[in-house]
Structure formats: structure tokens, C-alpha cells
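It would be a great kindness if you could assist me with a short task in structural biology. The matter concerns a single protein, recorded as an amino acid sequence and a row of C-alpha cells. Kindly check, if you would, that the fold set down in the C-alpha cells agrees with what the sequence suggests. Thank you for your consideration; the sequence and its C-alpha cells are set out here:
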Amino acid sequence: MKRRFLNAALFMTAALLSASCGDDSDNVLPVPPEDKTPQYEEPVPERPDYVNANLVYYGTDAQNESSDYWVLTLYTDMTVDGGYPIGPGQMLSLAMNTPVSQAQEPELSLLAGQYHMPAHSGDFSAGTYIQGDIYTIDLPDGTVEMPDGTFFGNIPAGETDFDPDLIREGEFSITDNGDGTYTVDGILVGNYYTKRYFTYTGPFEPVDRAGESVMPETPNSNLTADVELSGLTQSRLIDKKDYFFLGDESYRLFLLYLAEPTVDLSAEWPSGTGKLLRLELFVPWEADVADGIPAGTYTMAHRTETSGIPREEIVPFRVVEGYPDNFRYNTGTWYQELADGVWLNYGRITDGTVTVERDGDAHTLTIDLADCGDPAHKVSGTWTTEGPISR
């Protein structure tokens, strides 16, 4: 029995030795597959060829007296029409805070230096730039949105509009080359998360706009002559209640629309075509809009420099002065001439009186108002109704 086990063991050993002495090709390790993972390549940064520069000096303002405000706009080779470059091309607006010029003049020596992002939204210290933002302008024919501060624009061919990249991070420098030229160089990043490399070398010819508003201002009246209120056959009287939230039942605000028949007064905001007077009146709290406007002489409640109405002016028998620079959702007293809802001629009312006479439900309004123009233009006339005012 032992010999049988020994023979079996010898046989197994011989078999293993025979296998180990066979063809080596069966034992070759497999070759790993080729690594086809794409290798990262640093993209070549785009460097627009900025060849034109427009530099505007705005000086200090009442809200920030610690630095001067400048706007430098760089353009590639593009046609500029009315201040707007026409594509194709690129532009870069750099809004900067510099040390204050005591003379409030564009001193280029104050412009040279390093500029970095502000520490917070209220940081206007010298050596910072204004981060990009969208500014909404309220106009008589609607609202317009435009970029403000520091931003980049890639302008399509034949157009002036573009989708701005609002700059948030990065830094740049302005160097005085000592030969009448300056070099602007830096890297900025906006909401496109793309590095904007830029360089410009050339002269600066600053435009002095110290004391002027950075954004364009829209006049609150474009009337060129007095207005005679006639043909206003439509009316609508609305109770705005305690509009100024005084909570003491000391007044009530009535809004009266008087309009030509082609103006649509059915919605919250008038539309259509024709002449329109928007008249706001402070009346006694006990007044009921169903009874109409209380008789009396209404004098103007003037606004302060901050456009608010002093508490002592919010009393019955006052006309509410028009709120300035508010066109789309205007408040207070305004005269308008509409064309398909667009304001053609208009005036913000800031002076005058309205006298209301009553005979039962019948009303007679003697309107003697004036706009905010210089010189002011009268908006006047007599409006009557034989019965209650439409609501």
C-alpha cells in the first residue's frame, strides 16, 4: 500500500515537471491596452488687439468722496456710431477708483497704478475697480438694460448689442511709459468663467465729465408749449386708501384718470393712444370714492430732494407732485400723450392747484397745473361731469 502511494506521488511530480518544461508562450503576460485618455492642453488665451481707447473722468460724487471715478473703454478696430461700437469686434470697459484730484480735473498721473477687485460692495477705495452689473433704465417707451462697471463684450457683426461678461475677479495695471503713452495690462474673470487677457498701449485723451451722471438722464418733461386740457371725456376714480401707510386715518389718496376716448383705462396702467392726465389727490379719510371727490381747493404737496413727501404735506386737499424718473410705473401727477402705449409728449407735474366744485354728483374741476420744465409749461383746463365719476 505504501508503494502505491509512493508511485502516485512520483507520477504527479513527473507531470508537474513535464508541464513546467513546456512552451513558454503560454506564460507571457498580456500587454495592457493603449492609454487613449485625452491629455489636457493649456488653451492659448485669446488676446484681442485693442487699438482704440476712450477715457472719461467723472470725479467724486456726493455718495463717495474718498476717490475719483474713471471709465476706460478699450476697443478692437471697429466703427463707432454715436458712442456705440459696431461689430464684429471686442470691447472692454474698466471702471476704476483713483486718488482724488483736488482740482476735480482729469489728472493722468493719478490714473497709473495697480487695480484689484473691491473687498466688498461698498469698497470704493483708490486702486479698486467697480465690478460688472446690469443697470436698468426706466424710459417713457419702456425699460432698457445695459451693462455697468467693468465688463467684456464680444460684439457680433453689424450689431451694437451683445451679451456682456460681467467682471468679478482679477487685476490689471496702468503704466505711464513716460513718452505720452500708457500701457494697460491684466487678466480679469467674469460670470463666463473665462480669463480675459488684455493689453493696450497708446495715448489717453480724457473727457472731463466731472459732476455729471455716469448713466444718461431722461428729462422728466419734454413739453415745449402749454397744454390745454380738452376732449378728456373718459374718467376713472380709484381709492388708494392709506397709500403712504401712516396708519392714523389722517388722509386718503384718490387717483383720478382723465383721458381721451381712444385711451384704454380698463387695466391697471393706461394704454392705447391719446391724451391723459394722471391726478393724485389727498382727501379726508372719511371720503367715499363712490361719492366722488370732495369739494375744495387742492394745493401742491411738494417732494423733498430725496423725492419723498414730508409728513406735514400728507394732509387732505393736496395734489401729489409727480415722482421723478419713474416712467413705466409712474406715481403722483403726470400729463401724458400716448401712441400705442408709448409716451410721446409728457410732463411731470410739480406745481399748481386743482379746484373741485360739486352740485350733487356733478363735478367741475378747474385744473391749473405746471410741469417741472425750465421754463415751466402750464397744463390747464376745465373738466366737468353731470353725474358720478366712473370707477
